């Protein structure tokens, strides 16, 4: 048997070096098998050649049966792979294509963007290549992330240390009842991937602190601030100003929302210019204390996503240097201009981020 196996290895190796196609080498091995089996049947027991080839046809029949099973399995598997739809093949699955590259069929979902004169194919590619960080997976972050994913932003990071609660579901539309108790960043990841499986989501289940803010922000092209903690807003503002990363900032009260984009190196104020000090204790109640209209975070969060898309694609005019204020109770929308503070410790001459 050793002689026959050595011949088989020699045929496969030498044939490969001579450039024989795979099918030709398989046929040669099949002929060798037939000859060895015939020798074990035709030659008398005890013959030297028969003994060198194993001495028994039974062992070769078992080996041949196993080989037939393996070949049949491989052929069946190959046929199954051929029947897989192109978009479901491993090489075409979301996340397996190169960064900034559209998967087969992916561009069809962005057709309404491509026909927009202000975005077009160039703008859509910019969205695909963009990296957007969302701070806070709550009321403002939820609609913003859904629209960023739907719009085709290639990479969306989300940082939050909270878990989904039943009271969140009235307004935080990216979460679901079945995910109550789950970390918000992982629930948001599931929500975005359900909308667009081609988006790459980076969840950070932790609080944004001074120690990590600079490095995290520097890895993104634009940041959306949807958090409800003033200390975190100041940390984020300093990191974005230092890294020169545009900061789209949204905020809510029970019936009113506001939105602006901070880019102090381009002449706008920063967050600390507009709000140099935190509010006094008890002056502005939280959503849990005062309540909030269910659709209001959706209105403002969707506007934040629109601002991010305009910043990335260069379409239209954003809200740099001006603040939009939406009053949902009376159906009013107004804007105010914003100015830098010369003595701002973040973006003024002392801060040096301007």
Proportion of strand residues:
5-15%
Strand order of the largest sheet: 3-2-1-4-5-6-7-8
The biggest beta sheet, please? 8 strands, mixed
Task: Return residue spans where pLDDT drops below 50 for at least 5 consecutive residues.
Answer: none
The radius of gyration is: 32 Å
Could you characterize what this model shows?
The protein is of the alpha/beta class and 354 residues long. Helix content is 44%, strand content 12%. The protein has helices at 2-17, 22-42, 48-52, 57-83, 111-114, 120-129, 141-151, 184-195, 210-217, 230-243, 271-274, 287-290, 296-313, and strands spanning 131-135, 155-159, 200-204, 222-225, 247-252, 256-262, 322-327, 332-337. An 8-stranded mixed sheet has the order 3-2-1-4-5-6-7-8, with helices on both faces. The chain is elongated, with a radius of gyration of 32 Å. The N and C termini lie far apart (81 Å).
Distinctive features:
354 residues; eight-stranded mixed beta sheet; alpha/beta; 8 strands
Task: Please describe the topology of this protein.
Layout: H1 2-17, H2 22-42, H3 48-52, H4 57-83, H5 111-114, H6 120-129, E1 131-135, H7 141-151, E2 155-159, H8 184-195, E3 200-204, H9 210-217, E4 222-225, H10 230-243, E5 247-252, E6 256-262, H11 271-274, H12 287-290, H13 296-313, E7 322-327, E8 332-337
Parallel strand pairs: 1-2, 1-4, 2-3, 4-5
Antiparallel strand pairs: 5-6, 6-7, 7-8
Describe, in short, the structure shown.
By secondary structure, the chain is an alpha/beta fold. It has helices at 2-17, 22-42, 48-52, 57-83, 111-114, 120-129, 141-151, 184-195, 210-217, 230-243, 271-274, 287-290, 296-313, and strands at 131-135, 155-159, 200-204, 222-225, 247-252, 256-262, 322-327, 332-337. A hairpin with a 4-residue loop joins strand 7 and strand 8 (332-337).
